[in-house]
Design goal:
The structure holds two protein chains of two kinds. In chain A, a hairpin with a 2-residue loop joins β4 (80-85) and β5 (88-94). The termini of chain A are far apart. Chain A contains three helices and eight strands; from the N terminus they run βααββαβββββ. The radius of gyration of chain A is 16 Å and the shape is elongated. Chain A has two domains: 12-94, Aspartate carbamoyltransferase regulatory subunit, N-terminal domain (Alpha-Beta Plaits, 2-Layer Sandwich), CATH 3.30.70.140; 100-149, SH3 type barrels. By secondary structure, chain A is mainly beta. Chain B is 36% helix and 14% strand. By secondary structure, chain B is α/β, with parallel strands linked by helices. Chain B folds into two domains: 11-134 and 291-303, Rossmann fold (3-Layer(aba) Sandwich), CATH 3.40.50; 136-289, Rossmann fold. Chain B has a five-stranded parallel β-sheet, covered by helices on one side. Chain B has a four-stranded parallel β-sheet with strand order 2-1-3-4, with helices on both faces. The chains are: A mainly beta, B alpha/beta. The A-B interface holds A 109, 111-114, 116-120, 136-141 and B 89-91, 108-113, 115-116, 119, 130-133. Bound molecules: adenosine-5'-triphosphate, magnesium ion (MG) and zinc ion. Zinc ion is lined by residues 107, 109, 112, 114, 136, 138-139, 141 of chain A.
């Protein structure tokens, strides 16, 4: 029998190996609850797997586009995206940090122009992937604790 | 080298060769900046000077630079007299201003404001200071001053003194000097010393650095760059007085320095350089202030395409 910490779903997406504690932020970044108000989402946190603790998010009847999911790489760099079709894992993708992070992270510099009421989205340039370092495009401040700055 | 239409947001937008080119053009502008020669190079061009924050030198020297080249200036020095007071955004102010001009020069209290303005404007944007962010034209005029006073930038030992932690100008200047392989001494009280990232970056660029807390020995220094220590940084006024006093440059400080050592300061100064220094051969800060004009003339001429 397969390791199934969440109830099996027929079709949809399972985001596995999320950094423990970050499942709710993942759901928020993906905006699934707004985009798919009817989809059933199950969340399991602090599940003990083969490689230690992890969070899992399971979305029924929706196949997430791997590109759109790259956004979560900021807070869940080890996540895998499993597309489920007819109860089986049909596709598996890893997430990768995009070159620019737009509209997800809030700049930690209170005096940054992106924290005023100007008609712009926040924008960060990825300086390095391992360790993950991002820098505000506008004020050039580096973000120390990325997960606490998620909008 | 093509500068036409380019924004000037940070000194990091320039290569070393481009910086040297700007300084070369600035040198040619000196007689015009002094009013000894007339020029119509930017005749018919309009510069918008948008100062959301007070400034004496940056604003006046930009306006002088534009007018010396035969150009026109519109703008404001106090946002209180504009629709910004009614809550208009910077983005809209920029979109409006650019429809009336060929180049925008701006100072704004928020970091990143010039970078944002450049995204909205088609015309070139020149950053005259964005909060605690960049001030590239100050950096260029500092480099120009060192080159003019010393004949070259490389090969000097430059001491940066004062508030190195928060100082807007010194971080960019340290970077630019490192680009030229200049040896530097950072002199500041521990609580105002140069940030680690700046030190690391300069070292990675191959610059030889010394970090010090006092000005006891500056006998081998060629350029002493003094910055203001702001009272607001100290919770205790006593502590401020003590620190500020120990970094004050006076006749005594200059007793054991090199004959041709120069003292620079971005101004305004308060007490950090005693007026008795003004008369000495070391004082370069008033010439430095003048240098803002030819350097800004060079930039305006280059981004407007008056000079290729
Ligand atoms: N039908 C399903 N319904 C719900 N979850 C499922 C379903 N099938 C697989 N999963 C979950 O999707 C994830 C990936 O499944 P897979 O069978 O590929 O596991 P694995 O071999 O352990 O993969 P990995 O090496 O990525 O951990 C696991 O968390 C698994 O529990
Ligand atoms: Mg597994
Ligand atoms: Zn910022």
């Amino acid at each position: 029998m397969k390791e199934l910490k969440v109830q099996p779903i027929k079709d949809g997406t399972v985001i596995d190996h999320i950094t423990p504690g970050n499942a709710l932020k993942v759901v928020k970044i993906l905006g699934i609850t707004e985009k798919q108000p009817d989809s059933i989402i199950s969340i399991a946190m602090n599940v003990v797997g083969k490689r230690g603790k992890k969070d899992i998010v399971k979305i029924e009847n929706r196949e997430l586009d791997p590109k759109e999911v790259d956004k979560i790489a900021l807070i869940a760099p080890n996540a895998t995206i499993n597309i489920i079709r007819n109860y089986e894992v049909a596709e598996k993708h890893r997430v990768s940090v995009p070159d620019e992070v737009v509209g997800i992270v809030k700049c930690p510099n209170p005096n940054c122009i992106s924290n005023t009421r100007e008609p712009i989205e926040t924008k960060f340039i990825v300086k390095s992937r391992n360790p993950l370092k991002i820098k505000c495009y506008y004020c050039e401040r580096e973000v120390e604790d990325i997960s606490s700055q998620i909008m | 080298m093509n500068f036409r239409g380019r924004d000037v947001i940070s000194i990091r937008d320039f290569t070393k060769e481009e910086i040297l080119y700007v300084l070369e053009i600035a040198e040619k502008m000196v007689p015009i900046a002094k009013g000894e020669k007339k020029s119509n190079l930017l005749n018919g061009y309009i510069m918008a000077s948008l100062f959301f924050e007070p400034s004496t030198r940056t604003r006046l020297s930009f306006e002088s630079a534009m007018k010396r080249l035969g150009g026109l200036v519109i703008g404001f020095a106090q946002p209180g007299t504009t629709s910004i007071k009614k809550g208009e955004s910077l983005a809209d102010t920029i979109r409006t201003a650019e429809s009336y001009c060929d180049v925008i020069v701006m100072r704004h209290p928020h970091e990143g404001s010039a970078r944002m303005a450049a995204e909205f404007a088609e015309v070139p944007v020149i950053n005259g200071g964005d909060g605690a962010g960049h001030h590239p034209t100050q950096c260029l005029l500092d480099l120009f001053t060192i080159k003019k006073e010393k004949g070259h930038i490389e090969g000097n030992k430059v001491a940066l003194l004062g508030d190195l932690k928060y100082g807007r100008t010194v971080h960019s200047l340290a970077y630019a000097l490192a680009l030229f392989g200049v040896e530097m001494v950072f002199i500041a009280p521990p609580e105002l010393q140069m940030p680690k990232e700046v030190i690391e970056e300069c070292r990675e660029m191959g610059a030889k650095l010394e970090i010090k807390n006092d000005i006891e020995d500056i006998s081998d220094v060629d350029v002493l760059y003094v910055t203001r220590i702001q009272k607001e940084r100290f919770p205790d006024p006593e502590e401020y007085n003590k620190v500020a006093g120990s970094y004050r440059i006076d006749a005594k400080t200059l007793e054991k320095v090199k004959d041709d050592m120069i003292v620079m300061h971005p101004l305004p100064r308060v007490d950090e350089i005693s007026p008795e220094v003004d008369k000495t051969r070391h004082a370069a800060y008033f010439r430095q202030t003048f240098n803002g004009v030819p350097v800004r003339m060079a930039l305006l001429a280059l981004v407007l395409g008056g000079i290729e």
